[in-house]
Amino acid sequence: MLLIVLPLAFSAAFAALAATFDYPDILRKPTQEILQRFRDGGSGLVLLGWSFAMTAVLLAPAAVLLAGALAGADSTLLALGSAAGVLAAFVQFLRLIRWPFLVPYLARTPTAPDASAARQEAVDIVFQSFNRYLGVAVGEHLGYLFSGAWSVLAGVAMIQSNAVPAWLGIVGIVVGAVLALCSLEFVGSFEPHGRKLAASLTPVTYVVWSLWLAAVGVVLLF
């Protein structure tokens, strides 16, 4: 059930943010424009950001429960897969939870009566620093890396187990490997602007990954 609910909840929250906040394209705009759009969204946008962060948490129990459902697979492999899945959920949660708690404060600060130019500049630095640290480094880099690693390990376990068809395991391995490669988008000399190939592959890979999760959930459920 979780494997079906997770991609549906994630896609619904993502679609709502894209419609109301122009997410994730809005992140390429100047800080003041992003914060103004965030202020315009009001409490509804804050709640939507919190809901989006909560979808990431669902991966942790899903990864642990999936390991228990794959009877016949190597126990060490299942343990490693569970650990990778929990780590993926944790770092993705850290990436997204800044939106309902940190960003509202930063969005309010420039509109305060005593807001000086220096304070507005400080808001810009803090916002962009957290965007690079939690958004890119923790969320996109580690999040994609651990999600990919979990998918590969789960795929191998599916091939070893009779609980699901082997082709689902193969799909998991391929999608997980691509997702792990996408985690290198901003590594090394590509840190300032990212790799264009990875930027193009990531949205498509996430769609395929979501469909794979749902397919595994349906097979296990029925």
Descriptive notes:
Helices cover 80% and strands 0% of the residues. With 222 residues, the chain is mainly alpha-helical. Helix 1 packs antiparallel against helix 2 and helix 2 packs antiparallel against helix 5. The termini are close together. The relative contact order is 0.12.
What is the percentage of strand-forming residues? under 5%
Question: Radius of gyration over alpha carbons?
Answer: 19 Å
Mean pLDDT over the full residue set? 94
Please report the total strand number as a whole number: 0
What summary fits the major beta sheet? none
Head-to-tail CA distance between termini: 11 Å
Overall form: elongated
Structural class: mainly alpha
Helix fraction bin: over 70%
As residue ranges, the low-confidence spans are none
Compressed to H and E, one letter per element, the order equals HHHHHHHH
The number of helices is: 8
